[in-house]
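Late entry, beta-D-glucopyranose complex.
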Amino acid sequence: MKAVLVSPPRPGVRIGDIPEPRLSDRGIYIRILWTGICGTDREIINGVLPIASTPPGKDEMILGHEAIGVVERASKGLEDLVGRYVILVNRRGCGRCLNCLAGRADYCETGGFVEAGIKGLDGFMAEYVVDDPRYIVEVPRELLDVAVLAQPLSDLEKSIESLLITQRRMIWSCEDGTYRCRKAIVIGTGPIGMLASMLLKSYGFRVTIVNRRDLYPHEKNMISRIGVKFYNSLNGYEELYKEIGPFDIVFDTTAKPSVIKSVLRFMNYNSILALFGFARAPEKDYLDSEELTMIAAKNIALVGVVNGQKRHFETALEHIASWKSSMPGALESMITARIEIEDRDRVLKVLREKPPNEIKTLIVFSK
Ligand code: BGC
Ligand code: ZN
Ligand code: ZN
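Prediction complete; structure with ligand written out below:
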């Protein structure tokens, strides 16, 4: 079968022909329909993701952690899954710590977790995958066209969960009990920035999405469908601050210290800075003593947020279903290209480098 293969930490990617997986005793055999390309995939291909590693004993790994498939065969007792559409949960536990044993591998305490297509486990960019039913979530047929977005969205469902838990340290809702008075700034207009804006908006926050440049037309279209404000932060955040006041949530997808430093002094008392981004290129900068004092004096919380687990996939699918009617066309316009795996050169090119007009590119394995 065809599969997209990588060998981290070495850079590079190829499309190879490898044996089909064999159905195990308690497994299900899934035909992959399509997979999304994520920034993480490109970081692996370019050799800049330190956590990336091949499965034990192997020198190659199947790439990909955003996948929709259809169950074609199932082992005894699981036959009723045949014919169902599914999305696959990408991080799996270490098998030792309590969080992993309780299905919360996103909070693995040993660092021994594996991630499909990223760290120590084959991913989903292949024609077939055999998996354990514990790691699949059923996708309703009506959502099939955009359901692959439930993987990146699962990461954000976990993010907002952890953000709201953190903010329970005080009374943080507005006079009417909602979050309508709270201002959320999302830094970055990639797929994560877009999905974060949609989710924060659904929770009732007043959302502004930010980039240090003007928007490309496809991004403008997408943001107007979501119905949030855009701000160009090239000259800093002063203007935005003057207009809307101090920021209650800053959700960063860039991991750029210069960006964090420029936004910090506009953050509100008791606000929260969620760090989601992984750095693509090294950038050295430090928080100075004045900035650290301000973080302390204002009770600003800094929270790292990574990875969603099975129930975050489930809530992601619920949000996707509701956005289909509340933000018509928004999710659909996030999928900017579908390329068939047979189109090798185009697939490899788009895997190596993000095209300027992309929000989310899908590789189609079958239909
Ligand atoms: C994935 C996450 C994963 C993270 C770190 C992201 O691209 O969507 O689920 O935990 O990379 O490897
Ligand atoms: Zn990803
Ligand atoms: Zn663990």
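The first strand starts at residue 2 and ends at 7. Will revisit in the morning.
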